[in-house]
């Protein structure tokens, strides 16, 4: 059905890279704050609806600030898609930690 494939194409969200403060303040709660706002990656008690749990994490340059035991925040990026209406990441393909200095020096991000 040609109409169905066009509808699917219009509903599919494009992949993008979003970078900013990566927060994990408590078990299974993750979000990223970038220049456009806050994107929920996962909430405790919610099922993994966007692939975040299984998304590979690049290793390397990330730093982590512990604020609650081993929980806290860092700087990072995710590749995926978002729904601006809900603030949720609708798909997460990859997560990449970055040095804290990268977020601290970005004037578009709130200070930490």
UniProtKB/TrEMBL annotation:
Pfam families: DUF4087. It comes from the Bacteria. This is DUF4087 domain-containing protein.
């Amino acid at each position: 059905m040609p109409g169905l494939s066009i509808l699917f194409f219009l509903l599919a969200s494009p992949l993008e890279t979003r970078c900013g403060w990566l927060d994990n303040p408590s078990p299974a709660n993750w979000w990223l704050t970038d220049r456009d706002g806050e994107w929920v990656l996962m909430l405790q008690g919610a099922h993994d609806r966007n692939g975040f749990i299984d998304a590979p994490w690049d290793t390397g340059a990330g730093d982590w600030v512990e604020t609650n035991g081993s929980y806290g925040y860092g700087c990072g990026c995710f590749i995926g898609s978002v729904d601006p209406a809900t603030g949720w990441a609708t798909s997460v393909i990859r997560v990449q930690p970055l040095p804290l200095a990268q977020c601290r020096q970005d004037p578009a991000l709130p200070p930490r």
